Amino acid sequence: MFIAAYAGARPLGRPLPALAAAPGGGAAGDGDASLPLHLIYSFARDAAHDGVFTFYDPAQLERAASQQHPTGQRGMLSLAGAGFAWGPAVPLQQWVENAAASLEDLMTRYSLVGLDVNYEEGLDAGGFPEALAALVAQLKAWRPSLLVTVVPFDCVWPHYRQLLQLAGSNIDYVNWQVYAELESPHANADQIVAAYERLARELGGSYGRLTLGVNTEPEQLRGPQLAACLDAFRRLKARGIGGAFTWALDNSAVNGCCALM
């Protein structure tokens, strides 16, 4: 079961909450190493669109990595995010080589266990599925245990579906932003389950690579609310869903620990 929370959300500068208070952090009393909380640090970007990735606030990433509970929490790195479009300024092969080198360095330096692909804009420019599939293959060859997730929603699904076809088993989980598809806060568990039934059919009938997305932005009220998500999650667990994630830990820290754990 994959449980994750996006953390340090967006380059507009929200600080991370105290990681010791998050699930798996020890102080929360639920540091079961068999079910760690994956902290997906957001975001790393290649500002020159050349594949050379840096985290938007290296000092914050360094502090976060040093605060992680040694067994109950694991760090991942999320690429791009809203507001940063796909569009390499160098040939795709050079972009892949640069990206692999810079990401290997970041993941080694901060002891990160995985990579999250979160491009949402500019995907019609072409080259995205091919380049990311090649990048993931190179990173998996470098570290076979590397965990790789993608975080699509309905508007960008055709591009991510092609990436999944090209990358195959190199993509471990699909963090579906169901709150971007079902934007009403009145969306119910039946609608959530129906969305995942459709996705499972597109992925060959298996729920195992899918994770349930929960939006905890207090000001947005975007997407199904927590009660509906928990109801849907219980039903989807019976079908073998791979896990759940929340956007974002910064918000969830205000509302208490992640109930999905």
From TrEMBL:
<dbReference type="InterPro" id="IPR001223">
    <property type="entry name" value="Glyco_hydro18_cat"/>
</dbReference>
<protein>
    <submittedName>
        <fullName>Chitinase 2-like</fullName>
    </submittedName>
</protein>
<feature type="domain" description="GH18">
    <location>
        <begin position="1"/>
        <end position="261"/>
    </location>
</feature>
<dbReference type="GO" id="GO:0005975">
    <property type="term" value="P:carbohydrate metabolic process"/>
</dbReference>
<dbReference type="InterPro" id="IPR017853">
    <property type="entry name" value="GH"/>
</dbReference>
